[in-house]
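Researcher: Re-running this chain for the archive, since the previous output was lost when a drive failed. Same request as before.
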Amino acid sequence: MQAALSGYSDAPMRRMAKRFGAPFTLCEVFLDQFVLNVSKKRKARFYLAVKECDHPCGAQVMGSDPNEIVPAALRLVEFGFDLIDLNFACPVPKVLARGRGGALMKDVPRALEIAARVRDALPVQIPLTVKLRKSFDDSPENAEHLFDLLDGLFRLGVSAVTLHGRTVRERYTGVADWEIVRRAAEFVHARGGKMLGSGDLFSAETALKRMAETNVDGVAIARGAIGNPWIFRDLNALYAGEPLPSPPSVAEQLDVIREHWSLSEDLYGFRRASTEMRKFLLKYAEFHPRKEELRMAFVKFRSVDELERIFKVYYETADEGKGGL
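Model: Regenerated structure tokens:
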């Protein structure tokens, strides 16, 4: 599935992932208070609108107070999300300082209270899942919390967990620990649960290898899907025993960029789409034969005409071997 990505997995990104074969997508993580406030405003359409083409899709929510996270989860269901995912993994310092996200990896009683309250409040047909990290830090006392959490969560009726193989303190440094993912998957399966793995999945080959090594039920692809919806196409092909598809040609890249841009502009309008899309364009440029020049061009454009000129120079008149002028 496409994982929740703060600042990235908006509706346009999720729809592109779907088009290339992602069977399930998660929106970017929402703070419970944000959901309760934005759901009363017009701009809810930017964040909470769910179209028929989006299903199945889930919403990830984060908080530390059950009295706020429960109504937020219910509001997300009202907007049409098919699943609620609780974030007990976010490593951002200001989130941790308020007892949210990854801070709950070291507060098992509070984490289980939140999960129990949300599970009890949700309609029975709405699955509840949880995003975890391997532990809060590498200290022995915190390392054991993962298995206490897993045991408690599945006793409460959680449908699945996604485990990222880094500690909260590590954030995104170092290398994800897939051995702990393997051990956790074995633990979860013994309790009749489902588990997905996450961490450093930047190619379909790596994702398939990790699935085979750890016996997880699936993978959640996060940073590896930014500006690369083809990763889902590739993983589906390999999983089905088919050859790895060829990398997208320059012409194919432009078609996908234009489609993603159109979805973003339709939702936000040009000015905001320019801001939201620039980070994706920089990632899409990684596929281009003259990526450094193209990245600089994407950084600098300020108008529709300038963007169209970039498309013409680097995509429409470029040959496959060189690109650009």
